[in-house]
Amino acid sequence: MRESLLDRFCRYVRVDTQSSATSTTYPSTEKQKDLLRILVDDLRAAGVEDAAMDEHGYVMGTLPSNLPEGHPAAGRVPVIGLVAHVDTYHEVPGANVQPQVHRDYDGGDLVLPGDPAVVIRPAEEKELAACRGLTLITSDGTTLLGADDKAGVAEILEVMWRYQEDPSRLHPTIRVAFTPDEEVGRGTEHFDIGRFGAAVAYTLDGSGVGEIEAETFCADTAVLKVEGADVHPGYAKGKMVNAVRVLADLVMALPQHRTPETTEGREGYLHPMGISGNVSEATCQVLVRAFTEEELHELEDLLRAAASWAERKYPGAKVGVEVKESYRNMRYVLDQHPHVTEYAEEAIRRAGLEPKRSSIRGGTDGARLSFMGVPTPNLSDGSMNFHSKKEWVPLEWMEKAVETTLHLMDVWVEKGR
After folding, report:
1. Residue 371: what pLDDT?
2. Do strands 59-63 and 52-53 pair parallel, antiparallel, or not at all (unpaired)?
3. Which is catalytic among the residues 87, 155, 213, 345?
4. According to DSSP H, which parts of 286-394 are helical?
């Protein structure tokens, strides 16, 4: 039986798919495959007959083009990909999600029933002003909701159903891909671009409504490592070099105006994620984020300068900085293919919205896919407050995401390239 967008979304968020930042397996948690297996069946029911999951957990499938022979776009319009991820953020509870449907929202505070201390307030969420009278979906306040990115997953399924129900609506060949482990930065680690076969793709993984994101941070991960000298603390004067103390001082010496808590917009940051170790050796992982490679390297130079300062302040300490590349700003690729983003803007207009270009203060599967040869901007899935117990999504904004995606395929058919 045909399922509504709302019912499908609520069914998906009830499946626990949290990824793990510490696991060395792929996917990082086996439970992500619980939903991925469901999606294989759901895609096949929606007309994607070749839907299948590979050994890494990626689900891919094809909706073949229905362009008639002789159509101007036949043979010219490329294969278009639609991508969403199934995993949810790992540092907020994500099991036993109980979606709450708030119909005809009155514009006031939303007190979530599982934890009355968790309140979604219009005074803190300016976007709620546009949601009076809409149907909002939240968790019960004890977990995140998982709209990031199960809203995108549900919307792609809805698009497939719309084409099945209206075979007269023309579309190019569409390749669907659902990925695990996006939230831990490993969403494309084993992604087979050749098997995917799309020339261009779009992730449905952005917030709000009518937004298109064609720019991400450039990202590296740095590890600060301090080597100290341990001796018995009763006889340590002039001998001990406490690596924990050195590292703590070093972290606090980093620029306090270049942290996630003190930056916004296009400002980059250094983000210490965790400290571990002992007197002999201590390490700290630091996320380095900036919109340009030049600023990224400037921030990394600040880390190296701080390391040198710590060695001077604490004679006998050895401080190293190791930097590993994570991803780069997808704008470097998308600027070479401007029509990919322009077509999305036209689709948003056809959906009755004013397109809003924005930058992601983070990453996306689309960033890595772009550098793997498939230009992939990010479109809104309608949800707000990612990674939070206060996550919320209007059903009507999800419907707009579906409508935008359908119009996007119309534009590709009309433009034919």
Report:
1. 94
2. antiparallel
3. 87
4. 293-313, 331-334, 338-350, 365-371
Residue 87: active-site member: yes
Answer yes or no: are the C-beta atoms of 280 and 230 closer than 8 Å: yes
The whole-angstrom separation of Cα 401 and Cα 84 is 13
Q: What is the pLDDT of residue 152?
A: 98
Number of alpha carbons in the 13 Å side-chain half-sphere of residue 60: 16
Asked if residue 417 has pLDDT above 90, the reply is no
Q: Is the pLDDT of residue 119 over 90?
A: yes
Task: Copy the structure tokens of residue 340.
Answer: 């990919």
The mean pLDDT value of the chain amounts to 96
Element (H, E) at 411: helix 395-415
- My answer on whether omega of the bond before 255 falls inside 30° of 0, hence cis, is no
- Rounded average pLDDT over 380-396: 96
3-state class percentages of the chain: helix first, strand second, coil last, to nearest 5: 35, 25, 45
CB-based contacts of 262: which residues, under 8 Å, 6+ apart? 256, 269
Q: What is the C-alpha separation between 320 and 314, in angstroms, rounded?
A: 14
Number of Cα atoms under 13 Å in the Cβ half of residue 307? 20
pTM for this model (two decimals): 0.91
Q: Is residue 1 pLDDT above 70, yes or no? A: no
- Alpha helices by DSSP H, listed for 215-313, are 243-253, 293-313
Nearest Cα neighbor of 148 from 327, 17, 3, 326 is: 17
Q: Annotated catalytic residue: which of 16, 155, 181, 182?
A: 182
How would you classify residue 335: left for phi > 0, otherwise alpha for psi between -120 and 50, otherwise beta? Answer: alpha
Taking residue 294's Cβ as centre, other Cβ atoms within 10 Å add up to: 9
Q: Looking at residue 3, what DSSP letter applies?
A: P
- Give percent above pLDDT 90 in the chain: 94
Torsion of CA 288, 294, 295, 301, to 10 degrees: 70
Give the model's pLDDT for residue 199. Answer: 97
Report residue 254 as tokens.
């980093």
Task: For 338-363, write each residue's pLDDT tens digit.
Answer: 999 999 999 999 999 999 998 888 88
Domains of the chain: 5-216+329-415 (3.40.630.10), 218-326 (3.30.70.360)
> What is 262-277 written as a DSSP string?
G--TT--EEEEEEEEE
Residue 75 banded pLDDT, cuts 50, 70, 90? confident
